[in-house]
Structure formats: structure tokens, C-alpha cells
Amino acid sequence: MTQSSAPDGDGRPLATIKDVTDVLGDIDDATLSAIMDLRPTIADVEEAAMWMSGDQDVFGAGAPLKDVAGEIVSLVAGDDEENFPPTI
After folding, report:
1. Which of 12, 45, 83, 87 pairs with 54 at a CA distance of 20 to 30 A?
2. Which domain of life is it from (predicted)?
3. Secondary structure string (H, E, C) spanning 52-80
4. Of 54, 42, 37, 34, nearest to 18 (Cα)?
5. Tens digits of per-residue pLDDT, 28-61?
6. 3-state class (DSSP) for residue 81
7. Which CA distances in Å does 16 have to 19, 57, 59, 63, 76?
8. What predicted TM-score, i.e. pTM, was given to this entire model?
9. Dist CA 43 CA 11 (whole Å)
């Protein structure tokens, strides 16, 4: 399971497996695979991590998260999804 760091359509580099695990920590292989299938950028992974950390200075209290970063949060949260604000 490898991922190139080729840019996405917006010119932002795609995240590698190492990028994802460096930012999100140790996650199971199935979740990691599902995240990589989303073809996230490094910015998407960092945004999801900031949101999950509850950094309200960045997003505001209870602000919804959308797009790829929101899908990453949903995948990582799994059954603990009620602990995070909603995604759209």
C-alpha cells in the first residue's frame, strides 16, 4: 500500500502513508487503507487532526467539517463519533 506525493488537481501534494501515520498516529490497517483510498492531501490530514484535537481557535466551537478531512474524521472516529462535532 503505497501512495505517491504527486499533487492533486489543486497542486497540493497528496499524503503518503507515512504522512498519515505521522499526523494521526497509530491507526489500524483497514482505517489507513480507507483513508488512503480518499487520496487525501497533507492539508486534508492535518485539518482532520486539528479538528479532532478540538482546536476551536482554528474552526470555532461546533463548526462542521466537510470534504475529505470530514471523511477522515469519520473513519478515525468510528464508533466514538459521538465524541466529535458533526461533519457535513
Report:
1. 12
2. Bacteria
3. HCCCHHHHCCCCCECHHHHHHHHHHHHHH
4. 42
5. 999 999 999 999 999 999 999 988 887 656 656 5
6. helix
7. 5, 27, 25, 27, 17
8. 0.72
9. 12
